[in-house]
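Heterocyst specific ABC-transporter, membrane fusion protein DevB, pasting as requested.
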Amino acid sequence: MTKLKRQNQWLNPILMVIIAIISSSVTALMIRSQGLTLSNHQSSPVKEVSPKNTPIETVAALGRLEPSGEVIHVTVPTVLQGARVEQLFVKLGDRLKQGEIIAILHNYPQLQAALNQPIIKWLLPKPN
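Structure tokens follow.
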């Protein structure tokens, strides 16, 4: 029994040291993690900046874009089918005004003549 008592005498201090090391390590880790979270919450004051009133020139987006106003459908009349663009006066992204000419078709002279024919007939004197 004396041998067992001697082992217990050495075992108790070793267990105490191990428990002390573990508890101090856990305490140190908790304090350190609390310090990190506190430092994350403390930030410098934010300076407010007002946005500039500059027009948007381009939009880059994925998905479907829909205009906020009215949608205008541009179609080619059946008279103009097969017509080719002779001159193009606008570029992609240009803003247009109402009545602005955007292109001239290759058959413009023939179409203009067909449009002017009734006017010419009206202007010519009528036979009595």
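Note for the archive: The chain has a mean pLDDT of 75.
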